[in-house]
Hints:
The chain is 35% helix and 14% strand. By secondary structure, it is an alpha/beta fold. The strands form four sheets. It has an eight-stranded mixed beta sheet. A four-stranded antiparallel beta sheet has the order 12-13-11-16, covered by helices on one side. Helix 9 (244-254) packs across helix 11.
Amino acid sequence: MGDSKQSDLGISKASIRQKIWDHLEKHNLANFPRPVHHRIPNFKGAAAAAEKLKEVDAFNKARTVKINPDKPQEHARFLTLEAHKTLLVPTPRLRTGLFNRIVPPTNPTKEQLRKCATSQGVREFSVPVGLDDPVSVDLVIIGSVAVSPQGYRIGKGEGFADMEYAMMVTMGAVSIDTVIITTVHDCQVIDDIPAHLMGPHDLMVDYILTPTRIIHCDNKQNRTAPSGILWQRLTREKFKQIPILKTLRYREEKAGKDVRLKDEIDGCEGQEVKGQVQQVKGRMSDVKDEQHKEQRQNNKTATHSKRNSDTKTSRENTSKSGFNDKAPSRGIYSQKSPQKSSALKSLVSGKPVASNRVFVGGLPRGLRVKDFKEAICEAGVEVRYVTWHGGRGFAFLTLAATEKVQNVLDKMNGMSFLGKSVHVEIAHENHNVNK
Length: 435
């Protein structure tokens, strides 16, 4: 969220990110998924860095902890559950709300807690937390691309961590005194993050945990953190990507706050009052639609959260087989698309199959569909269905309505599995599965 400020030497947030990503790749300091570019890096030693939470009073005293859903913070999520703390995890890319509260099985084993801490477990063992639910977050644990001993933090450039915090401020869930911790590799700690690159929307950290040390950032005098949602920095495109913002915007507008978006401010000079009133009415309609949608989602999640042993056994058997041709997956993705048969029958002419389908080729033998789904999820790809042909080395992605094909091509550019690079392109009819 904001890489425009640059020093005379050309240092920017983007250049710092690139430097760190390149270093991690060049020296093989990261685990799957690779490459680390455009991600919160899953650095080697992530579990060792998380273990240092036990030495931080803020963690030991915390009752409710919010942790991002990225792979390098998986062990931190496990430790939080193991310590019987309440764990809140943001929904990926804030697609369906703000938080999910992780609810492990009764009397869980360590293995069950480890599963709850994974991205799959977050989907299966969670219930949504609504905007009106009373929440008080004692500690925030986040990932980073780069941090400095002064507490300056640079994320992957999409602004979701800053946005999550701003939304928590709006809910009254955090304050300027809420402790923020990040876990990173030692090479991600750099001294030369210029202060002027940080804006009022940027989140600073109090502690940096690496595999070898704990850094306490003494920044109380100049600490910055979002004081709420900075609507004037949000573009309409970003606003549409996060449905829950419609509700928050309407509430703040009713409270008399200026909730104009960046696009509206840039282009609103000379607008008539009538046009502004029509915009407000349109927002109210959007909010009502979103509230109905959120209620349906909450009801659905509450129904699915009650599982009996027969259902669990059935799901585990399905997981072992790899496919379930009789029922779609319960998760965000399913392995078999309803449109599969009709789409594959027409693979002859080389024309695009659909505007929302992507072909992924060059998949290595031995790659599990579970790992593939987890990787594209962590890359931020929003998918409705995965049509899996891993044994033949390819798969089709049917994208969510909010996802754009070009964005997916950019996000998956350079992605590799088991040391083998894959190629990604718009799905065409000549991608014949019988090849």
